[in-house]
Amino acid sequence: GTSQIGGFGAIIDLQKSEYDKANQIVTGIDGVGTKIEIADAMDDYRGIGHDVVGMCVNDILCHCAAPVAFLDYFVCGKLNRRRATEVVKSISEACIQADCSLVGGETAEMPGVYGPNQWDLAGCAIGVRQPDWPQLPETSKIQVGDIVLGISSSGLHSNGFSLVRKILQAHKIDYKATVPWGNSSFGQVLLTPTKIYVRSLLLLMRGGLIKGAAHITGGGITENAIRVLDREAELALDIDASSWPKDELFNWLGSMGPVTTKEMLKTFNCGIGMTLVVSKESAQSVKDALKKCDEKVYEIGKVVRRTTDDLITYQNLENAFDLAKYY
Amino acid sequence: GTSQIGGFGAIIDLQKSEYDKANQIVTGIDGVGTKIEIADAMDDYRGIGHDVVGMCVNDILCHCAAPVAFLDYFVCGKLNRRRATEVVKSISEACIQADCSLVGGETAEMPGVYGPNQWDLAGCAIGVRQPDWPQLPETSKIQVGDIVLGISSSGLHSNGFSLVRKILQAHKIDYKATVPWGNSSFGQVLLTPTKIYVRSLLLLMRGGLIKGAAHITGGGITENAIRVLDREAELALDIDASSWPKDELFNWLGSMGPVTTKEMLKTFNCGIGMTLVVSKESAQSVKDALKKCDEKVYEIGKVVRRTTDDLITYQNLENAFDLAKYY
């Protein structure tokens, strides 16, 4: 349970929570980056709270920690009530999805430092671990033949927006323009809130079915998936870039952008919000369990013996995206 | 101990720390507000990290929590290496003073959202409590006759800067101008880093010598000191506004500003960074112990029976500041 006595700080009472044996705290802080610009352009702040919560809780989840508390930092030049209300509502909803409590926050009005319409959003998630939970990543258990699973993202999540902006600007496309593959606007598609994987993954992690998990954020699959590997072990991830279906957004970005497929995989999550390393034996159970949680999950690669300096290699890069589609 | 495995979140292992029985987490998030503007005007970022750490750890300290970890959020339009380095160095030094570890952070470069020279700084402190430590404020123990102690601040700390800016602007005074009471510039005086009270206060709190502590931030003594009181109890704080010496900065602000003494006490810490409620019997030991820690401490008031709606009353308001001095 949480309470606010006196109100100087938020108190999280582990004794009164289901994690009364917790002996480790796992914590992470993050912002939503330039996704803010698109929320402003669309004047739509109903998802941005999911983004800040998702960025933080998905990170700590990678260490098999149960999120217990979240705090937000909302800063602006002049308080816009509707915006602030939508943001806080979105944060609150996301905290429910992440099974954590919004225990505190700082709302700062800083005229002079911020312009009247300027604002920013960051947050900090606090999770706990019980002594008998696996300490992920279990680098020493990861071995050749292990399977890499990818759980689908809900679009860009909260990374890669500087490149997206460049691509839209280069083609003189407004955020309110309709996407060529549907009826939504680019802004609406880009603002899709970050998926929160806590409820799908935590129990599987606690049950020992997962050896390592990587939240795919800035740096894309290329820079994040490898973070479960021990650099000393001569292992690498071999990923089949054509093994999961791509949202049209990613095909479009790949088609329109002055960006190679390799750069796509190093910038965007490209449809995979979380990668998992699991044993060959557990792969099917993990896939089945995730599907029961309404996750889309794909076998996207395997752990191989590393023969070069690269911790990650790709197969079928040429078929990763449907690049001809939007030319 | 803290470690970063995999690097998605920071792990704080309570089992390996001196707080291996901790069963409560206390946390707070805060920014440094418009003090940033003065740091920019003076191009001096050597203290601003102390401010963000101080704002957060002094808050959680009020609940008798030992800070164990700190995370910062540093955001800018374009990374200025010297500024970023000075800020992080300042945060690190302050974390040492607060006996906590800088376990993580987010450095965000957000061109487009922030101007090239624009930046901001916030942070989150995480503290823990052992089961046998007093849960402050001990509102039910606070009674008529208890003493209110004030520990001196190091200037404005990180609040009240919007009003300070107004006062300086009204008198067309540059931050680089020399103060009338010394050789420093206004900017230097205003940038004095926030005092961190962890080492002076935590052991006294743990020892049961303090019934309540209030970190004096935005809202000044008036709005913060009362936060240790149970609103249902018919108690109030009666403060002698002339009972502690005032830094010349506060005399100057009171003299020059279009601001009454009441407003001064409701905006600035006015020289008191932390107020404590202690029993009559413990007052002397607490004062002695704080003096040994090189704190300046004053008996500034007492707990009285409340007879009006006001949770705080002041004596000697007319002598609180030397208002004639800078006319």
Could you give the topology of this structure?
Two copies of one chain form a homodimer.
Chain A: E1 2-3, E2 10-13, E3 24-31, H1 35-42, H2 48-61, E4 66-76, H3 81-97, E5 101-109, E6 119-129, E7 147-152, H4 161-170, H5 186-190, H6 198-206, E8 212-215, H7 220-224, E9 235-240, H8 248-256, H9 261-267, E10 272-278, H10 283-292, E11 297-305, E12 312-315
Parallel strand pairs in A: 4-5, 9-12
Antiparallel strand pairs in A: 1-2, 3-6, 4-6, 7-10, 7-11, 8-10, 9-11
Give short descriptive properties of this protein.
homodimer; 327 residues; alpha+beta; 60s Ribosomal Protein L30, Chain: A; Phosphoribosyl-aminoimidazole Synthetase, Chain A, domain 2; 2 domains; six-stranded mixed β-sheet; four-stranded mixed β-sheet; 10 helices; 12 strands; 25% strand; globular
The overall average pLDDT of chain A, rounded, is: 95
CATH superfamily (homologous) name of the largest domain in chain A: PurM-like C-terminal domain
Return the structural class of chain A: alpha+beta
Largest interface, and how many residues on either side? A-B, 68 and 69 residues
Q: In percent, how helical is the residue content of chain A?
A: 25-40%
**Lateral arrangement of strands in the main beta sheet of chain A:** 8-10-7-11-9-12
The stretches of 5 or more residues of chain A where confidence is low (pLDDT under 50) are 1-5
Question: Helical segment tally of chain A?
Answer: 10
CATH fold name of the largest domain in chain A: Phosphoribosyl-aminoimidazole Synthetase, Chain A, domain 2
Query: What number of structural domains do the residues of chain A give?
Result: 2
What would CATH call the class of the largest domain in chain A? Alpha Beta
CATH architecture of the largest domain in chain A: Alpha-Beta Complex
Strand content of chain A: 15-25%
Element order, helices and strands of chain A?
EEEHHEHEEEHHHEHEHHEHEE
Largest sheet of chain A: 6 strands, mixed
Radius of gyration of chain A: 20 Å
